[in-house]
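for the writeup, i need someone to sanity check this before i put it in the appendix. the sequnce is what the collaborator sent (i think, or maybe the updated version? ugh). structure was predicted straight from it, no edits. if anything looks off just tell me and ill rerun, i have time this weekend
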Amino acid sequence: MKSTKGIGLAEVQRVYGGAEGDLWELIMGEQIHIGGFQSSADLAERAGIAPGTRGLDLCCCSGAGMRFLLRFRNVGQMTGVDATQRVIERGKKRNEEQGVAERIRFVTADVCDSGLADGCADFVWGEDAWCYVVDKAKLIAEAARLARSGGTIAFTDWVEGPTAISSEEAERFLKFMKFANIQDINGYSSLLQKSGCKVVLALDTGRFAPCIDLYLQMLSMQLTYDALRIIGFDTNMMQALSGEMSFVQQLAHAGKIVQGLFVARKGRAQQR
């Protein structure tokens, strides 16, 4: 697992508490993850998310994933955990506007120590956000604790791909993205197994590179003014951000960064 120093929860909160988070939403939409609706639908189908179930979204941001699950999988209740108050307040407003506030609860907390009860969820959900968490072993252990016996852990995330990323490339990528480290598919699978889960699926979705291409096209062909407005019309910053996104594009096409998809089942307690 590649890692860097000097990045933690505070740095991530600054991203999503300010203009950088707004810029990501402009580029990627309300569902700030690779593949948007199609990615969510694919993950939910592969995980077998059933109507009436209780879900828990770790690193939920403004709750777009939870609203998707209520509307398109008819889940009963969702709880979202995030550490950035600004996106939670935005999510609450959107829940009210979309008529789902009574079925979604937000908790402001570190996702590695949520304070929620053991086994409180039928499934634990995440979409391209666990890459921001420093202690991934603790995160996976917390997800397993929160899932009921026999429950599901389903998530996508940015991970290192089949082609190894160099130390220099990793340092640049991690600093730009505000990731303390980046896991790979085998690494996440191992953490799930160590936390008492059976890995059902662990794969590369193939979506990462085409989506990065799309985001750069949108920025250059349609959203330039909107992006500049968010960053105070700072053209030097815009040029720098475009350069870093082009670097991410290079990593994507080299197979060094991909979107991983994971579905696991929590082992049932042994009967005595």
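The first helix runs from residue 9 to 16. The mean pLDDT is 96.
thx in advance!!
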